[in-house]
Amino acid sequence: MILVSLGTQDFPFNRLLEKMDELIEKKVIQEEVIAQTGYSSYVPRHFKYTKFTTFDEFEDLLDQCRILITHGGTGTIVGGLRKKKRIIAVPRLKKYAEHVDDHQTEIINLFSDKNFIIGLEDVSGLEQALRAIETFEPIDYVSGNQKIVSLIDNFLGRTVRN
């Protein structure tokens, strides 16, 4: 199953939903798609959707999905990485009134440059990204908290041994 998550900010992201419908129509996508559409006004024709979910409902969907396609929200990206999901991220852009600025592009570039996700600049690259995600091997994500705990453990281990 492919999960599409557009977050909960009060902005539409119709372009991504429209592209998903297009790719399903073209048979590029042939598996189940479920989307959390937020404040988007576009009504998907070829896949299930809900505007919002509870935290637990979203976690269940995230557990079930094979691929996560998301906006550039840090919380959704990190949540998917923690569950070792293959992620394609597409930024909301200011020029389409999808956000107040283009910070999601910067967020996506940071994660993509480190090989955690496949990051796109626009929905036009989604078909190619879906092909690439099949063989994409993301590196394991370690949060800052996990790194700190590991550093402390290593330090204490060395201190106790000395």
From TrEMBL:
Protein source organism: Paenibacillus mucilaginosus (strain KNP414)
InterPro entries: Cps14G-like, Glyco_trans_28_C
GO MF annotation: an example: hexosyltransferase activity
UniProt-listed Pfam families: Glyco_tran_28_C
Glycosyl transferase family 28 C-terminal domain: residues covered: 1-132
Domain of life: Bacteria
Protein name: EpsH
